[in-house]
């Protein structure tokens, strides 16, 4: 992985363990690749709460806007 990434994870995800997302975040950070990690303690594999979905999309937009401003 060499591109900036925004990772969204639900702590109750039965398919993907939180540790897997955290390992990716750690490795990208070590490589100096821009990465943002948003963990929802009350979600699983996907969104069930509109409030969380809206928060995630707003954060993703902010992340992408920052990349555009940085010329990445």
Structural class: alpha+beta
What sort of overall outline do the alpha carbons produce when their principal axes are compared? Answer: flat
Q: Strand order of the main beta sheet, please?
A: 1-2
- Helical percent range? 40-55%
- Enumerate the spans where pLDDT stays under 50 for 5 or more consecutive residues: none
Q: Could you report the average pLDDT, rounded to the nearest whole number?
A: 96
**What is the rounded Rg?**
13 Å
Supply the number of helical segments: 2
Q: How much beta, percentage-wise?
A: 15-25%
Give the tally of structural domains: 1
Distance between the termini: 15 Å
Largest sheet: 2 strands, parallel
Number of strands: 2
Output the helix-strand order: EHEH
Looking at this protein, list some descriptive labels:
alpha+beta, 2 strands, two-stranded parallel ribbon, 72 residues
Task: Explain the overall architecture.
- With 72 residues, this protein is an alpha+beta fold.
- It has one domain.
- Helix content is 46%, strand content 17%.
- The chain contains 2 helices and 2 strands, in the order βαβα.
- A two-stranded parallel sheet has the order 1-2.
- β1, α1 and β2 form a beta-alpha-beta unit.
- The radius of gyration is 13 Å and the shape is flat.
- The model has no long low-confidence stretch (mean pLDDT 96).
Compose a concise summary of this entry.
The protein is an alpha+beta fold and 72 residues long. It is 46% helix and 17% strand.
Furnish the topology, listing elements before pairings.
Layout: E1 5-10, H1 18-30, E2 35-40, H2 50-69
Parallel strand pairs: 1-2
């Amino acid at each position: 992985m060499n591109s900036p990434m925004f990772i969204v994870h639900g702590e109750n995800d039965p398919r993907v363990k939180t540790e897997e997302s955290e390992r990716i975040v750690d490795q990208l950070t070590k490589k100096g690749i821009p990465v943002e990690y948003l963990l929802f303690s009350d979600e699983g594999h996907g969104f069930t709460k509109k409030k969380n979905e809206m928060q995630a999309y707003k954060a993703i937009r902010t992340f992408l806007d920052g990349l555009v401003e940085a010329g990445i």
